[in-house]
Amino acid sequence: MTEAKPPADLAPFAGRFVDRTHWFAVRIYYEDTDFSGIVYHANYLRFCERARTDMLRAIGIDQRATHEAGIGTYAIMGMDIRYHLPAKFDDALIIASRATQIRAAGCHIQQRVMRDDDLIFTADVKAAFLNPKGRPTRQPKQWVEAFNSVLVSE
Questions:
Q1: pLDDT tens per residue across span 85-125
Q2: Which of 44, 70, 110, 117 has the most CB atoms in a 10 Å sphere around its CB?
Q3: Domains, the chain
Q4: Which Gene3D superfamilies match (predicted)?
């Protein structure tokens, strides 16, 4: 039997920008739920992290290369979260992420998790750019420019 090769155009879904909002889809699997059958509360943080990471990748921010080059990395310094409604097994959720503020050493991103027209979860995320010693430092100029290309007012 010969090994099957994956299609050349097959890649993980990374979401996409429409105007200045990044849209990212998540399907709820059994492993995402708790014993009551609803999404375990901490999993919303994982879903939002994936959406933020792909949002940054979509605007050309290569976090891995910057970290490996010893320049620095983002760290979450604050997050205001709110649970509005539960999500359940097999739900299709959409995460909308918007950059609302950019500073020399950080950024602010607002995220909404929705199921159709229902608001499920919200997060206001503040991240700081840290040097390898863990101190806030200016993020790369290219990153600031990338954020400015999608910045929205709060």
A1: 999 999 999 999 999 999 999 999 999 999 999 999 999 99
A2: 44
A3: 17-148 (3.10.129.10)
A4: Hotdog Thioesterase
